[in-house]
Every structure is written in structure tokens, then in C-alpha cells.
Amino acid sequence: MAATRPRALPPVMSCTNTKALLDHTTFPAWADALRAEAPALSRAGFLVLLPGPLFDAAARVFAGTGIAWGAQDVWSDGAPPTGELPAEALAHAGCQAVMCGHHERRRRLGESDTDVAGKAAAAAGQAMVPVVCVGEREEGPAGRAVTAVLDQAAPVLDALPADASLVWLYEPAWTGGAGAPAPYPQIAEVAAALRERCAGRTGDSRVLYGGAVTPGVLTRALEAGAALDGVGIGRAAHDPAQRAAVTAELLDLLASREQAAAPDPRKAPT
Predict the structure, then answer these.
(1) Which of 10, 44, 67, 141 has the fewest C-beta atoms under 10 angstroms from its C-beta?
(2) How far apart (Å, rounded) are the C-alpha atoms in residues 193 and 186?
């Protein structure tokens, strides 16, 4: 019987989708570098999303490090697929999370919002965390971005149990070629809209921003009022200096939240 208990999420998170940038010859050195940084990365809730051929290596190299890993996609149809990986197989391989709805798959493979919702539900049904990508295709006003994101989010929330853990990755498709992130006030508006839409859920939810993330993007987004729990990083995850700088920002966010949650000694009972 499949495990269905939702996974608890760390208070802050970062993730990277390696796409097909790594293979069996290049993954070991990169993974060894992550292992050396594991104490910081694990506190920053680092999650690596990998292609299937690297699952076995990930299970070995990340065991006991606190670095989480998972898949870049999942098959959601109940029929046995050819050339696809169903949720049960991913869970058996050790995946802790699954990316759903990346904008490349939406655009190139025609994945619909309904398809993405089915994938998220399939992942949650195997106690894996769906990392659901949402975002507008073209640059435009913040209001249009909010509408696009909420339209994509609605089927996912309808399909998921209220107690399922869920990560939103707001990643506007147009930022990939723009070389710069979305405007920080827009990131704040989208994050606020997602949080409001998730009000009342009992499961853990996190909101991340992705899209041209480099050092300083998270800090500036937070300064603009974005209620983010972290970021998704792309090629910056393969640059040791940039990776360390973004991780330091995440640890600063974690420290500020821990400090805010700490009891005030001046109000301690006597």
C-alpha cells in the first residue's frame, strides 16, 4: 500500500531544476560539491529536481545529507505508460518531490492546467511534494500575471487534498530570455494572491519565486513586500559563488523568521 501521509516542508526552501544539464559523467562532481555544502543547503531547504537516469546516483550521494531530491515530471494517467514514470515508480525510487507544469512542458508538450493538476494529485497520493510551476507566458501588467497564476492554480487546489503539502514556484516563462527577474512589486502581488488562495488549507504550503534568480533577487523581492519562502535557481545553482550567496540570503530569511517566532523574554512569566 502506498504511503499517503503528507511530507512536512521546511520553513524556507530553495530548489533547482537541472533539466538535462547533468549526466552520469558530470553529476558526481556537482553532487560532491553539494555534499560539502550540505549543512547550509539543508537548512535552506534545498531540493534538487533531476531526470530519471540520475535517481540511483542521487539516492546514494544525498543520503543522510538533508538535501532533498525528486523528479522533473510524473505520469498521472492510471493506464500503464510507455516511456513515462508513474508516481508509484518515482516514490519507490526515493523521490521526495515532483515538479509539475514547468512552462517548457506547457508550451512544447501542450500540458494543460488540468494535466498539471492530475500530476500534482498523483505525486501527493504517493506522499511526494508537488512543486507546481505557475506563471504568465508574456511580460505584462501585474494584474494580468495574477489572473494567469490563479487560473493555473485553481485546478491544482481542486485536485489536491486540503492536507497535502504543496510548493508553488512562480516562474514567468518570459523571464528565461529576459535575463532579469519579474518586477519585484509584481512578485509580491502574485505571492500574496497565492497565499490568499491557499487560506484554509491544512497542509503545508510554500511560495517560491523562480526566473532569472541570481544573488540579491530574493532580498530585493522581500524588501518589496513579497511574502516568499524562498527561490528556485537555475544555472546559478551550478556556480559555487552564486549558489553560496543565494543560500546565505535564505539563511538570513530563516534567521529572521526564527527570531520573530522566538518568545519575548520581557514577557516571560515570573
Answers:
(1) 141
(2) 11
